[in-house]
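[[Per-residue structure]]
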Amino acid sequence: MIHKLIVLGILASTSLAAAQAPPPEQPGSASIAAAEQLFNEARTLFDKGDHAAACPRFEASYKLDAALGTLLNIATCYEKLGRLASAWGRYREVIALATKVGDASRLKIARERADAIEPTLPKLTIRARSSIAGMVVTRDDVPVDPAVLGIGIYVDAGGHTITATAVGRKPFSTKVEVKGSEIKVVILPELAIDPDYKGPAPVATTIRLEQDHFDPGRTRRIVGLSVSGVGIATLVAGFGFGAVARATYDTAFEDDLCDRTTLACTPKGQERTDRARSQSLVANIATIGGAAMIAGGVFIYLTAPSPGRIAITPGVEGGANVSFGGSW
C-alpha cells in the first residue's frame, strides 16, 4: 500500500495537471506534426547535452501525442538532469504502458533504470501536528493528498517549498533542502488563528494529537505489573518453603532423631534433615526468582512510554475546550 502511495506522490508532483484532466482525445494530424517537431528539437538539444531545455520539449510533445517512446525519453532526460524522482516516476509509467501494449524492449529498459535509481532517491515526509477541516498542503505549489501525509515520498534532490493553508488561519510556509538519498521530515505546526480574517467564521474543529498514540506504553505497564505480581507470589512461596524447611529440620532434633552436639542422626532423622535441605533449596530458588521477577517488572513498568494526551479545541476562538489524558 505504501509503495503505491509513493508512486502516486511522484506522479502527482510531475504530472498533476495531466492526471486530473480527462483522457486526451485522439490527436489530429496537426497535433502529431507539432509533437514530432517538438520531439526532434528535444532530441537535438538532448544530444548536445542541454537537458534543461530538452525535457520541457519532450513533455510538450508528449501532451500533444502520448507516444510511449516520448515518455521513455522524458524519463531519460530527467535522469540526465538529476531529477531522479521525476525520472523514476516516468519510468514507472513506461513500465505500466509497455506492459499493457506488450513492448518488451522498452519495458526492459524502464525496469532496469527504475530499479537502478530507486535506492538513491531521497524521501520527504510531511507530517501535520493538527488536522483542520479544509486545510490544504502543497509541495512546490502541487497539492499533497491528505492520504500521503506522514508517508515518505520520493522527491527530486534540491529545494522544496511546503505550505499549509486553511480558512480563518494564518498560512504556513517553509523551505527544505533535500540531498542525495537523504530522508527528511517536515512537521507542519498547528495553524494559528488569523485575527484579520473577515470572512464567515470557520466551524471546523482542530484535533491535536500530542503523541502518535494515546497511550503507547499501556501494554508494557500491564506486563510490568503482571511480572511483578508473579514475582511477589513466588517470593512469598519461597519464604513459605523456607519456614517449612526450618520447621522440618528442627523437629528432627526435637524428636531426638538427631543430636545437637554431635549432629549425628538416626536413619529416620537423616531422612528428615535431607528433606529439610531439599525444601530449603526450593525456598532459595523461589526467593531469588521472585526477587528477580519483581525487579524485572519494575524495570518494564518504569521504562514504558508515558501516556499521551488528546486536546480538542474549536477552530475559532471561544467555545468549549475538551482534553483527554493523564498518567499513572
About this structure: The helical segments are 2-20, 29-47, 51-64, 68-81, 84-101, 104-117, 218-254, 267-302.
